[in-house]
Amino acid sequence: MATTADSSLTFARTPHPAPTAVDVRDAVLADPGFGRAFTDHMVEIDYTEGKGWHSARVVPYGPIPLDPAAAVLHYAQEIFEGLKAYRNADGGISLFRPEANAERFNASARRLAMPELPAELFIEAVRQQVMADKDWFPTVEGGSMYLRPFMFASEAFLGVRPAKEYKFLVIASPAGNYFKSGAPAVSIWVSDYTRAAPGGTGAAKCGGNYAASLVPTAEAFARGHDQVLFLDAAEHKWVEELGGMNLFFVFDDGSILTPELTGTILPGITRSSLLQLAREEGLTVREGRYSLDQWQADAASGKLLETFACGTAAVVTPVGKVASQTGEFAIGSGGPGQLTQKLRQKLVGIQRGEIADTHGWVKRIA
Ligand code: PLP
Ligand code: COI
C-alpha cells in the first residue's frame, strides 16, 4: 500500500465480514430518518507530523480505538463536514459541490491548527465511501446518503498545543427528512445564549461550536420548537443563523436577504448555491444585517413574505413561527411560501440530476 503524503494514496480495502442483513437494511432504507443508521463501511486515513497523510483504507464500520489522552477528548480539536450523495433516476450516483466541502474543511482545519487534506484526497475518500456502500440509498422520496467526513487529534499528549497525529474518517448514513415531523414549516426559538463571537470559531465547522449550541437547542426543544436561532454576540440584535442552518428572508418587493458572512456564521454551501439561483431568477439579492426587531416589524406589516432555513441536512425548510423571551410572531401564512418552494425545487432538481446543472455543481461518481 502506498503511503505517500500527497493526494494519490491507494485505498486498502477490507470488506465487512458480516454486512447488515438485506431485510434489516431494507427496513432502514424505507424509513431512514436522519443520522440514526450507518452503512457497513467507513474510510480512515492517518496523519503523522513529518510523514503526512498515510494508510488510507476502507474498513468495516465500527469503533475506533482511542488513547484516553487523545487530544480531541480534552481540547476538542475536531472538525467535520456534511454532504450528500444522490442516486439519480438513471441509476447513476452524484455528489453536490464536494469541492466546496473540501475547501471549507481546509478552512476549518486552518482555524483549528490542524493539517489540511488535499481536496482531491477528500473527494476520493468520499467517493470510496459511497462506492463501498452503494446499496445503502434510501428508497423514500427525497432520500439521499448523508456523508460525514471528519478529522480529530489522536495524539496522546496533554500539553495544550496543536497535536502531531490526526485521524480523518468518512462515515455514511442513509437520510430522509431532517425534521421529524416533516412539518410544512418549522418553529424557531431565539436564544439568549451566544454561538460565536468575532475572532472566535463561528465560521469553522468544528464540534465545539455544536457542543456550545446544545443547551440552547435543548431549551428550544423543551419549549416545543424545532431549532434554535442565534443573534450576534456584541449587540444581541442581529440575526446570525440557526444551530445547523443558514437563514433567508423574502420580501414583497421581490428581494431576498441573508445575513452576511462576518466570520461568526458558517458559510453554507446551500446558502451560496441559493444566492446564485435567486440571482438567476432575477431577484434582488442582498447579503447584509437584519435585526430581530425589524424582522418582527416586517412580518407584521406584510413586507416580509417568507423566511426559510437552508443547509445540507435541512435542504430548504420554511420557517413558520419565531419565538423569544419577549413573545412570538408568525411568518406569512405559517406554511411554505411560494419562493421558498420554487428555490427548493430548483436546487433539489439540480442535485438529483432532474434539472440541467449549468454551474458545474454536480459531480457524477458512478
Ligand atoms: N450553519 C450551520 C451552523 C450548519 O451546521 C450548517 C450545516 O452544515 C449550515 C449552516 C449550512 O451549511 P451547508 O449548506 O454547507 O450544509
Ligand atoms: C449539515 O447540514 O450537514 C449539518 O452539519 C447540520 C447538522 C446536521 C449539524
Describe the structure.
This protein has 366 residues and is an alpha+beta fold. The protein folds into two domains: 12-175, D-amino Acid Aminotransferase, Chain A, domain 1; 186-351, Alpha-Beta Barrel (D-amino Acid Aminotransferase, Chain A, domain 2). Helix content is 25%, strand content 29%. It contains nine helices and 18 strands. It has helices at 22-30, 71-75, 98-111, 119-132, 207-212, 214-222, 269-280, 292-301, 338-351, and strands at residues 12-13, 41-48, 52-60, 78-80, 83-87, 93-96, 144-153, 165-175, 186-190, 227-231, 239-242, 246-251, 255-259, 284-288, 304-311, 315-324, 327-330, 362-364. Strands 1, 2, 3, 4, 5, 6, 7, 8 and 18 form a nine-stranded mixed β-sheet that branches. Strands 9, 10, 11, 12, 13, 14, 15, 16 and 17 form a nine-stranded mixed β-sheet that branches. The longest helix is centred in the first third of the chain and has 14 residues, at 98-111. The radius of gyration is 21 Å and the shape is globular. The structure holds pyridoxal-5'-phosphate (PLP) and 2-OXO-4-methylpentanoic acid. 2-OXO-4-methylpentanoic acid binds at residues 82, 244, 311-313.
Topology, element by element:
Blueprint: E1 12-13, H1 22-30, E2 41-48, E3 52-60, H2 71-75, E4 78-80, E5 83-87, E6 93-96, H3 98-111, H4 119-132, E7 144-153, E8 165-175, E9 186-190, H5 207-212, H6 214-222, E10 227-231, E11 239-242, E12 246-251, E13 255-259, H7 269-280, E14 284-288, H8 292-301, E15 304-311, E16 315-324, E17 327-330, H9 338-351, E18 362-364
Parallel strand pairs: 1-3, 9-10, 9-16, 13-14
Antiparallel strand pairs: 2-3, 2-8, 4-7, 5-6, 5-7, 6-18, 7-8, 10-11, 12-13, 12-15, 15-16, 16-17
Helix pairs in contact: 3-4
This protein binds pyridoxal-5'-phosphate and 2-OXO-4-methylpentanoic acid.
Residues 82, 244, 311-313 line the site of 2-OXO-4-methylpentanoic acid.
